[in-house]
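Regression check, nicotinamide-adenine-dinucleotide case 353:
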Amino acid sequence: MMHSFIYEALPSRVIFGNGALDQLAAEIERLHLAKVMVLSTPHHRQVSAEVAAALGDRSAGVYDQVVMHVPLEKAQAAREEALRRGAQGCVALGGGSTIGLGKAIALAHDLPIIAVPTTYAGSEMTPIWGITENGVKKTGRDPKVLPRTVIYDPSLTVSLPARLSVASGLNAIAHAVEGLYAQDANPIVSLMAEEGIRALAMGLPRIHADPQDLAARSDALYGAWLCGATLGAVGMALHHKICHTLGGSFNLPHAETHAVILPHAAAYNRAAAVPAMARIARALGATDAPSALHDLAKRMDAPLALKDLGLASADLDRAVDLIVARPYWNPAPVEPTRIRVLLERAWRGLPPE
Ligand code: NAD
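Current build output:
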């Protein structure tokens, strides 16, 4: 085989393990931050308050006004609050929405982020930010929003309900699936992607059976790290374009939308990305990647139909228009008729073609 690629490593420090949150104070010291503001959602109010209390003088308090998709007004309010409290950095404890708010602050004021992810979304490993202004989500890449330290503590994910865990895990797998057929794929990232799929496929069904299974939580979070690193390193394709469109323009829920679309997007690219499909199938212990992704989702009672996520059948044509108007690079050509068929099947909850 003739190899040809560019590989660029992103700087990141990862601390992984049960109880790893105990190392937060040492990490703050390591980064020479005199004071940090702890970002969280109301759901994590208690653990955030405990974290802030344990930091003593280094705490600039908790800020729990996190909402989905980082609306600009909320980002500005959080930025002002961080400055008012004299924070030199932020600890973002939560899912992609919380880490997204940390990124919005980092983008404006260069305040470094220590991320403590509690879902499998993967934002903590990427230099990608997103801010919603007048209903439109703008995204961009900037190295200063990449968290300086990421603390993965599986015990913090035990409270994530089984249904959300499964959807969030499939969201993570989607990063790896698209990373394997990315235009700028490279050998190291592909190794991470394949291993990420394998670890999540091993952990998620056990979490579905028992959300308290800490070993399964560890497998899934390990996989989410690898899939997040893949998302941060290489470009995404049709699957992510569809999900960004459905989330951004039709307000569909993030993780669940990824869960529904993934087998269909993989099927769309099946013939155009044969080596990637072989690696995805190998990671899933199967022969056909798209049907194995569908079977995995079905086995774990994941959402399978866009109609169950609140998308009206009448919206499908507009969704196709938006997807094909400014497509991302994709292994198979992005054709309106094929996309319409894909969306119709995903809307009805049919297996992938
Ligand atoms: P989220 O952060 O909105 O969390 C979903 C819900 O789960 C929230 O209600 C939250 O409070 C709750 N939750 C989180 N962790 C929990 C836990 N351990 N126990 C119980 N409840 C918990 O959702 P998400 O899927 O993590 O992130 C989605 C957002 O992140 C989207 O806006 C997406 O665009 C963004 N994102 C960005 C990137 C990036 O690289 N910039 C990558 C992935 C996702």
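Comparison notes: The longest strand covers residues 89-94. The chain has a mean pLDDT of 97. No diff flagged against the previous build.
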